[in-house]
Write a structure and sequence with these properties.
This protein has three helices and eight strands, in the order βαββββαβαββ. By secondary structure, it is α/β, with parallel strands linked by helices. The strands form two sheets. A four-stranded mixed beta sheet has the order 1-4-3-2, covered by helices on one side. The chain is globular.
C-alpha cells in the first residue's frame, strides 16, 4: 500500500437492540443508514451500517437472535469525533433524547469535550479539539 491510497475503515461491534442503537447514531448524531441486512439463516446476524456517505469509515452494528457475542464495552472503548470547535448543546440534547447518557470519560476528555454513552454502553466522545495525521 502506498501513502496515496486511503483504505476504508470499518468499525464493527455487537448491539443488544439494533433499533435503539440506530436511533442514537442516526437521530442523535446524524449518521445515515448506509446498509441494512437481516439474518438469512442459522449462524448469521442482523446488521446496520451507519456513517456519512462521503466518509472513509463506517460503523457496523450487528445484532439479532443469533448474535454470538454480547456487547461488553469498557470505559476505554471510545469513538472520538474531533469537531475542532465547541460541542453544541442541542447535539448533546438530541443524543440524550435518542437514548444516550452523558457520562464522564475522565479528566482529559471531560476537559476537551463531551462524552455520551450509546444504548449499549459504548462511549462517543465529541471532542472540541481538532486532529490531523499530517
Amino acid at each position: 500500500m502506498t501513502s496515496t491510497e486511503s483504505p476504508h475503515l470499518r468499525i464493527a461491534r455487537p448491539s443488544r437492540d439494533l433499533g435503539a442503537a440506530e436511533r442514537f447514531w442516526v437521530d442523535g448524531l446524524g449518521l445515515s443508514v448506509l446498509y441494512r441486512g437481516e439474518a438469512a439463516g442459522p449462524g448469521e446476524h442482523d446488521l446496520v451500517m451507519l456513517g456519512w456517505p462521503d466518509a472513509a469509515w463506517h460503523l457496523e452494528l450487528v445484532g439479532g437472535e443469533h448474535l454470538a457475542v454480547a456487547p461488553r464495552p469498557t470505559e476505554e472503548d471510545l469513538f472520538v469525533l474531533y469537531l475542532a470547535g465547541p460541542v453544541e448543546a442541542d447535539l448533546v440534547t438530541r443524543l440524550e433524547r435518542a437514548g444516550g447518557t452523558r457520562v464522564s470519560a475522565g479528566p482529559y476528555w471531560d476537559r476537551w469535550g463531551v462524552t455520551v454513552a450509546d444504548p449499549d454502553g459504548y462511549r462517543l466522545v465529541l471532542s472540541t479539539r481538532g486532529w490531523s495525521n499530517a
